[in-house]
Amino acid sequence: MSLVSKLTSKKPSDKQFRDILVPITPTKKDYYTISGNKPFSNDYLTLVPNLFSNRYYASLVGTAFDYLARFRIAQYIGKVSVIKNLVAETGYKYLGVSPNIYSLWMNQIKAFVKDPLMSPIYLYDIAIRLAKLEQLVRASTLHKELDIDYYLYADNPEEVLTDLENLMTVFEIRFMIPDLIKKKSKVIFNPNFGLGSLLVGGADADLFIDGTLYDFKTTKTKGFRTNDSLQLIGYFFLNEFAIVTEPKEINFKYKQMQIERLAFYKGRFGEVEYFDVKNSLSKGDIKTKLRELADYFQNNMGDLPLHSKINNPTLLLKHLT
């Protein structure tokens, strides 16, 4: 199970978790846009229409775009570490083939990051293959017989490649601007939430830049979706949980983030929708919710390893007093 699965599950224990977050989940009126357009409205212009007849292609593009956007940002700030800990690598390892192909992909990505003049067009095909492998992992199909050719060798659909190119053109104009990212920005790619991620069975976001946690969307829908907003506020509280429960006795990899804003980047419209956490939730509100979550996690420990030094759930509450 993951955060998304937990938030949509009908199990009583998962509904209890959702009910903790619902009262402080931002609503449509709580967001604002960088463009000044009314959030989630018909003010948005569709710059990259979704013309796919095959719904799977739209999903594939969404994941591939996440990769390309991160690679482009990495190129801008010169950060080759973008290739570390990719979810796709897990899928590739399961294929059980020679590691040379994956290594070749990573070398091509590193070459792109190191060359500020190289176009992302050279990575479109790789991004789609990485997206296929990531979907393999997230769909939990690792124990089925796999079509190696589909993942590694088969030509990718031309319409998928064209859609990616159009999305990246808009991304360059609407996202790669000084208001959103600078050469010296603090950037964390595919951030996780340490202990918080383990407690919900897995949670990782798309990107953190200078206090803002971003979720990239390539949906054709302009309207507000409560579950998307719920997921973002879930990320925020898992991160806060990681911060306050990150003493020496907890040995989990986690890059601390101070999240001040939550945001969606809508790739087909070139719009950014923000929720200002810092000015919307008081420290008292945050601490109250953290204690509610700590109480909840005492009986719902997710994927926390049994050998962990924090397998005694009372430690969760100790760090919130």
Distance between the termini: 29 Å
Q: What is the residue-averaged pLDDT?
A: 89
- How many separate domains make up the residues? 1
Q: Supply Rg.
A: 20 Å
**How helical, in percent, are the residues?**
40-55%
Q: DSSP strand (E) fraction?
A: 5-15%
Strand order of the largest sheet: 1-6-5-4-3-2
Weakly predicted, low-confidence segments: none
Shape: globular
* Biggest sheet statistics: 6 strands, mixed
**Number of E-state strands:** 6
H/E series:
HHEHHHHHHEHEEHEEHHH
Q: Structural class, judged by helices and strands? A: alpha+beta
Q: Please, how many helices?
A: 13
Please, could you describe this protein's structure?
By secondary structure, this protein is of the alpha+beta class. The chain has one domain (3-318). Helix content is 46%, strand content 8%. It contains 13 helices and six strands. The protein has helices at residues 3-8, 12-21, 55-77, 87-95, 100-114, 124-138, 148-152, 158-174, 194-199, 226-244, 277-280, 283-297, 314-318, and strands at 32-33, 187-189, 207-209, 212-217, 261-266, 271-276. Strands 1-6-5-4-3-2 form a six-stranded mixed beta sheet. Strand 4, helix 10 (226-244) and strand 5 form a beta-alpha-beta unit. The longest helix is centred in the first third of the chain and has 23 residues, at 55-77. The chain is globular, with a radius of gyration of 20 Å. The two termini are 29 Å apart. 36% of the residues are buried. The model has no long low-confidence stretch (mean pLDDT 89).
